[in-house]
């Protein structure tokens, strides 16, 4: 497998955010409005087609979010669009986990992204097919973690119900709970 060391500006383009007054946000609009590290609301128009990575330009400088769909990016952030040699979700994962933020941020009271320094950052880019395999593996792991969290929540609800049943008047433990008793 041939990996290539490239600069970030060789694998993507940087698209500026644009100010939109909050009174123009539309509740339930079809397009998310991304700001500096959060979804600010929604709007009836999009600024960019997805997929893009949205990066906070100031404040939470360097924080990233992935937008698979068309969206609006406000002026506290900018969009990053992968070119054909780079899977957009792979680029997001790399920016989220491997980008050296200390090398691309400036300022102390209000940190901001130095875009020239960001563009010069090196990325070790595998072939496109391998990038997609990485994305698929991470997505399946994320699904697994989400299912665990959901299962934990459901188990907690079940526990509360079981406790209520068992502690209410000294009822006998139902036979359906035998598998839990054997596991203990």
The oligomerization state is single chain
How would a textbook summarize the main sheet?
4 strands, antiparallel
Compressed to H and E, one letter per element, the order equals EHEEEEEEEHHEEHEHH
Helix content: 25-40%
Radius of gyration: 23 Å
The portion of residues forming beta strands comes to 15-25%
Whole-number mean pLDDT: 86
How many strands appear in the DSSP assignment?
A: 11
User: Which segments are poorly predicted (pLDDT under 50) over 5 or more consecutive residues?
Assistant: none
Q: Roughly how many Å apart are the termini?
A: 48 Å
Q: What characteristic shape results from the CA principal axes?
A: extended
Q: Please, how many helices? A: 6
Strand line-up across the major sheet: 2-8-5-6
Q: What structural category characterises the helix and strand content?
A: alpha+beta
């Amino acid at each position: 497998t041939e990996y290539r060391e490239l600069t970030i500006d060789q694998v993507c383009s940087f698209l500026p955010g644009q100010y939109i007054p909050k009174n123009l946000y539309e509740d339930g609009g079809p397009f998310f409005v991304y700001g500096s590290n959060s979804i600010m609301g929604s709007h009836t128009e999009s600024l960019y087609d997805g997929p893009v990575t949205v990066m906070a330009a100031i404040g939470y400088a360097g924080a990233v979010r992935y937008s698979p769909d068309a969206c609006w990016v406000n002026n506290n952030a900018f969009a990053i669009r992968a070119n054909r040699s780079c899977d957009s979700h792979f680029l997001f994962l790399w920016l989220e986990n491997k980008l050296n933020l200390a090398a691309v941020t400036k300022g102390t009271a209000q940190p901001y992204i130095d875009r020239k320094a960001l563009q010069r950052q090196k990325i070790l880019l595998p072939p496109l097919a391998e990038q997609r395999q990485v994305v698929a593996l991470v997505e399946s792991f994320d699904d697994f973690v989400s299912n665990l969290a959901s299962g934990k929540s459901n188990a907690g609800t079940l526990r509360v119900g079981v406790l209520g049943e068992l502690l209410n008047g000294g009822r006998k433990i139902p036979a359906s709970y035998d598998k839990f008793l054997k596991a203990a």
